[in-house]
Amino acid sequence: MKKQIFFVTILLFSIPSFAWNNHAGITYLILKDHWKNQKTPMVKVESLKSFLTKEKDSIQETISLSENWALTKLPHLTKTKEELQFLSSSNDPEIVTKFYKALRVNPKHKAALYIQSVPKKNGKTIPLDQLTTLHEKGKLTNETFLSLQEGQMIGADEVLVSATDEPDYDLDLHLFEDNTSEVSKVYGFGPQPFGNPAVEFSSQAPFHMGFFYEPKIIFTLAGFLKRTYPELRIHQFTELSKLAFRKGHPYWGYRFAGWALHYIQDLTQPYHSSVLPRVSASKQIGVQLVSIVGYQTPKDNMIQFVSGRHTLIEEYQYYLIKDLILNKNWKHPVVTSIINLEPNEMILWKSLDDLRVNVCKEAYDAGEPTDEQLENLNILKYEKLYEETHPIHTILASLLKNTSKHTRAYLDALTIKN
Description:
The chain is globular, with a radius of gyration of 21 Å. Helix 11 packs across helix 12. It has a two-stranded antiparallel sheet. Helix content is 50%, strand content 3%. It has helices at residues 2-14, 23-34, 48-54, 56-73, 95-103, 156-163, 205-208, 216-221, 230-246, 250-267, 281-292, 297-326, 333-339, 355-377, 391-413, and strands spanning 42-44, 114-116, 145-147, 153-155. The protein has one domain. By secondary structure, the chain is an all-alpha fold. It contains 15 helices and four strands.
């Protein structure tokens, strides 16, 4: 226990909770190219309650399939309590809440009928408090959300674009036993392994990160780093997407697929697959030891530098993607890296069992060079967008090409584009 304390003060407060801040914008650019040679599918908007009511007899079987898979993959995962299993009758007013609890997500998530307008277009807007329970809305206040009506026809691309952003709205908030919520004590996830439980959006961090390639000594001294759950979410929403397509609910097929893609895209971000890039295990241990005896500066500097670069790349990416879409700057090097993948750059998505090798290892290996390049830029925080030839765009182009590659592979494996 004492060994683990060495790392808690470093890792508990230093890991930001968001990866790519603009999933919707990135996915818009990916689909702009990926579906360019065919007509975008149109789907009929359907409420979650309607979907669950019609397919209530298949829901628990699908959820159990994912849990059984995850239990073999994640030794730290506990079984869902029997009382939380999805059992519902027709006309059950609590059917949506029961579904959320069976998945062990935030039971207050809204799943409103909407699209995030990327790029902006006219329509009836929907208030943010109908989309999220977050008290701090952050960058959501910069976005335009349009209301949909059940039965309305909408493009599948708009459903996917919107859905890839949605898990950050509150889906994984307050699920650990030291969080304050009605379900934190019954979901069985234990205490929050890292991130700051006192910070609202930080409680989602272990569901959006996956550390699989740290040195053995780090895992020995900080075993809590193994307690991450993005694979559970990806499997859950993938299987629900397959169920929805199979049963004739394409709107929810695409929306669940978008939810799954959110976590996959998060894991393509190097700072979500590596704890402290370019900080050796010995240095992590050393700065913590000297901080215990009162010399705090080295630890503070290490946290500030690494978390600062993490925040910089995400902030810059958010505003850059918004600007490129607004101005239709399709020739920008970051845009071309996302939309112009050569055939030899494409990969096959074989199964979720390969996620750690195909996605996380690639992101982990990119961590050190990315961190070094960002440090050499000598940019402390986001302040403005730079000219196209600025080296920060080379960094982003490389990272987002990987995001594009894995997004396409996942969609093709679900045969969505057909």
